Amino acid sequence: MAKNLVLWLVIAAVLLTVFNNFNESAESHRLSYSDFVSEVKSGRVEKVIIDGYTIQGQRQNGEMFETTRPALSDPKLVDDLFENNVVIEGKQPEQQSIWTQLLVASFPILVIIAVFMFFMRQMQGGGGKGGPMSFGKSKARMMSEDQIKTTFDDVAGVEEAKEDVRELVDFLRDPGKFQRLGGHIPRGVLMAGSPGTGKTLLAKAIAGEAKVPFFSISGSDFVEMFVGVGASRVRDMFDQAKKNAPCIIFIDEIDAVGRHRGVGMGGGNDEREQTLNQLLVEMDGFEGSEGIIVIAATNRPDVLDPALLRPGRFDRQVHVGLPDIRGREKILKVHMRKVPLGEDVKPELIARGTPGFSGADLANLVNEAALFAARASKRTVGMDQFEKAKDKIMMGAERKSMVMSEKERLNTAYHEAGHAIVGRLMPEHDPVYKVSIIPRGRALGVTMFLPEEDRYSHSRQSIMSNICSLYGGRIAEEMTLGKEGVTTGASNDIQRATSFARNMVAKWGLTDELGPLLYDEEESDPFNRGYGQGAKPLAEETQRRIDAETRKIIDQCYSKAEQILEENRDILESMCQALMKYETIDSKQIDQLMNRESVTAPGGWVEESDKGDDTGAKAESAEPSVDTDEPSDQSDSSGDQGVDPDVPNSPDNNLH
Ligand SMILES: Nc1ncnc2c1ncn2[C@@H]1O[C@H](COP(=O)(O)OP(=O)(O)OP(=O)(O)O)[C@@H](O)[C@H]1O
Ligand SMILES: [Zn+2]
């Protein structure tokens, strides 16, 4: 459409010039005004046409000429002309330029129309990203077969998923042959799995292995404010794909268009439904033998419209899960190929210490480690850097320059020590990995627990223990600083503990009182809280029973945590002191503290003290910009991690 705009302007300009010159004689030549006057006086001029400042004339011998009179008026001219019997013709100024005038008058309107159309098209994705990678109106990006360098070797740790899609490569390489040999022709594949597990990567690798073009678009690109745009994009995309077959169409975040129809959004969403319908029509419309495979990715397969999953559409599901310890090791190795590694680096150790990390997290880990090494001007990336990178990703970046008052530090130290001690002494609780009162992200301090191995489910006891350790922070503050000294630091702990307790009652079926029933299915559709699939409004009586039972669990856990901290008050004090001194302590120091032994300095401590181990030194090094950087609700999260509020639904939450 950019081209169209230019075209409009060019046409307008050409027309203007043409009409302007319409009446100009081709042969006339120019004279200076004084030459003209002298020719008049010498009687050689027969006729003039005066048109504003322009004077066209004809000599006795028939020659045409033209001159421009000066802006100063020359009253003698008319006399001279009459004296020499020159025929004078006037001209209505508009006469020659009626077209010109029309055009001039309408020119701004034309420009406005052109600009308007330009933006309309822009919004519809026409000129969109531009360049050779985009095509038509569909907004999808195409990578040709020689642009794709990704192969199956780049995708690690998801062996089952790789096996599941291997057949697609055979099909894409030679669709006809595949069909003759009687293979079941795939059309749509749904890749389901958590964010960052490599769905996009795997889809690209299929294209890379089969050496076919790869069209990619995100579901959210289809959803526009103008009804019909999304549907036309879908149509365009399939048209383009058919021209480039065999090829892969990859639709990321299919849930943006493919959500269950008729629920949510307060009474339907025409645009989204139209888009989805168009997608279904297109999926039905091509023959498998054409060699197009549509791969869609989502991390919410549960919210998809069942129509999408019918035979002939996305009838094949590939689960791309979080990698296990072996998978993590393999993924780390893939990404470590790109950095110079120190001798001491052991991918298997890093893999063990990173449960729950996705492929994207691991790629990020290697990247962060390389950055730490670069900052320290190291030639290779060593285990130290990987440790630091891991802490940064798991606990958030350190904000060393943030100045905390001594009182706040003390408060945070008691709070974190409380979490750590209760966590340490409760059965089936994940071991304490690190306790720190260095502010990170939005938190003033962090207690990090780390399971010894990957966990796929949680026992009732482990959830109860988790609730206990969550309250440990608040209780420790209250015990040492008194009721009046308690801060808002525990707000996030309280929120999470409550959520665990409530889920135990209403979702995980872990209480005798209410039994193994699902009482509320929040979030089956985030846009549609409360009325999702399967949710039923609860009777007031049931609500009350759930609340009472939740309260019971919390009271039980609270007193258990209180009891533990009272019995180990001396450890609470010594751990607080160790934290005030070292700021961060590891499992080794925690072991010593729990055994009431003297505490040795944590690893890397000497280094730390160079950077300033007391508040005074920290204040000096503080950057002025940091103050404004602080979140306004920082007091709410003091002593806590600013975790995603959605997280409490999962017991996999190791930061207190
Ligand atoms: N299994 C894996 N093997 C190697 N690298 C991986 C793997 N999974 C993810 N990565 C790394 O993480 C990056 C992001 O992964 P990718 O975009 O494929 O994830 P995704 O599942 O599509 O995520 P999302 O759901 O957020 O779109 C990849 O470019 C790659 O560097
Ligand atoms: Zn806390």
* Bound compounds: adenosine-5'-triphosphate, zinc ion
What is the makeup of the main sheet? 6 strands, mixed
Strand tally: 14
Q: What structural class do you assign from the helix and strand content?
A: alpha/beta
Low-confidence stretches: 22-26, 124-136, 523-534, 607-649
CATH structural architecture of the largest domain: Up-down Bundle
CATH class of the largest domain: Mainly Alpha
Any idea of the CATH topology of the largest domain?
Answer: Methane Monooxygenase Hydroxylase, Chain G, domain 1
The count of helical stretches stands at 24
Order of strands across the main sheet: 6-8-9-10-7-11
Keywords: ATP-binding, Cell cycle, Cell division, Cell membrane, Hydrolase, Membrane, Metal-binding, Metalloprotease, Nucleotide-binding, Protease, Transmembrane, Transmembrane helix, Zinc
Binding site for Zn(2+): 415, 419, 493
GO cellular component, one term: plasma membrane
Transmembrane segments: 98-119
